[in-house]
Specification:
2 domains; 12 strands; about 350 residues; alpha/beta; Rossmann fold; six-stranded parallel beta sheet
């Protein structure tokens, strides 16, 4: 079998949604006793999410979201690029990988030997979304489904499309001990709230404390590095795990233990779903069509605003319009969804 390099996504949520495709490729190689001929390349901190999975597959880590180096990729027969960046295609070309497969968009199609052109939409406002797209923009679709289609160019059929993550046993024990030290019984029901958001981020929900005031089970509030301020603000009497913040393996462990996970539409949402947790997700600037699959145990809460979904990291508006897509999400509605899933 060909020596295949897969450039995995650089965003946590996309990485989790791509897991079924990675699993199908690994199973195909493993069935022939050639798992070592599969390489996973991507940011080092994200690749650690797959510790304990994909046995035998080689890891090619790099630092940051765009730190791939051509010399690290040489020696492969084919590259599957699950990112849309120009740099990933450029790196595969410079590494002289004979077969280069990815999305043909944003001026990188000439670097690919096999490209798939994403569908475009006509520019109207989709039902229940709000904003009219700049014509002709690419049609927002579930990211995992697009990965499945790319895998088809290698003759790999992805039959199990629901993402799943293996919880690290050591991380689970660390989190059980840490919860007990914070006065939370790890064997009793508790809520896990991902309240993390970088300062000024449009993707953060500013009303978590109001949601928690309407719910009874003990709550544990988490976030990522640099998001400690938002976690403390949301906790308001709940347990805030900020010193230190939980790493990705520990986040997965916490999600697997929680009775319910509440989060904004960010990577931890997908981690929670992939370990089997029910999820209440507040979505503001993100387009819900990117994640519109496997929602049986997920409740998506959002309001329709004329300016969204914009996918901007910072809201460019001012006054009453600033951050409306998140500020106007009623905490009572979020709590009602949470109680429904808990029941």
């Amino acid at each position: 079998m060909e020596r295949l390099l897969v450039r995995v996504p650089s965003w946590l949520g996309d990485l989790v949604m791509a897991e079924p495709t990675l699993r199908a490729l690994w199973e195909r190689h493993s069935a022939r006793g050639e798992a070592e001929r599969l390489s996973l390349a991507g940011p080092s901190h994200l690749l650690r999410l797959f510790d304990g999975a994909f046995a035998g597959a080689r890891r090619i880590p790099h630092e940051g979201r765009g730190g791939e180096v051509a010399r690290d990729w040489r020696g492969h027969d084919a590259a599957l690029l699950l990112t849309g960046s120009f740099r990933s295609a450029w790196t595969a070309w410079r590494a002289r990988i004979p077969k280069r497969v990815g999305w043909s968009r944003d001026g990188r199609g000439w670097l690919l030997t096999d490209g798939m052109r994403p569908a475009r939409e006509r520019g109207g406002a989709p039902l229940g979304v709000g904003r009219v797209g700049r014509r002709p923009r690419y049609l927002p679709r579930p990211y995992g489904a697009t990965c499945v289609e790319l895998a088809g160019l290698f003759g790999t059929r992805v039959t199990q499309t629901r993402p799943r993550l293996v919880v690290d046993a050591q991380a689970l024990e660390r989190m059980r001990a840490r919860l007990a030290a914070e006065g939370v019984d790890p064997d009793a029901p508790f809520l896990l709230v991902n309240a993390g958001a970088r300062p000024g981020s449009a993707k953060g929900y500013p009303r978590w404390s109001e949601v928690l005031s309407r719910l009874e089970p003990p709550a544990v509030v988490v976030g990522g590095p640099g998001e400690e301020e938002a976690v403390r603000a949301a906790a308001s009497g709940a347990v805030a795990l900020v010193e230190p913040v939980a790493d990705l393996a520990e986040l997965a462990a916490l999600c697997s233990m929680a009775a319910l996970v509440l989060t904004a539409d960010a990577g931890p949402r997908h981690v929670a779903a992939a370990v089997g947790a029910p999820v209440v997700c507040v979505a503001g600037p993100t387009d819900p069509r990117h994640t519109a699959d496997h929602l049986e145990r997920t409740r998506l809460v959002r309001v329709t605003v004329p300016c969204g979904p914009c996918h901007l990291e910072r809201c460019p508006l001012a006054g009453a319009d600033e951050h409306r897509c998140m500020r106007e999400v009623d905490p009572e509605v979020v709590a009602r969804h949470a109680l429904g899933l808990l029941a």
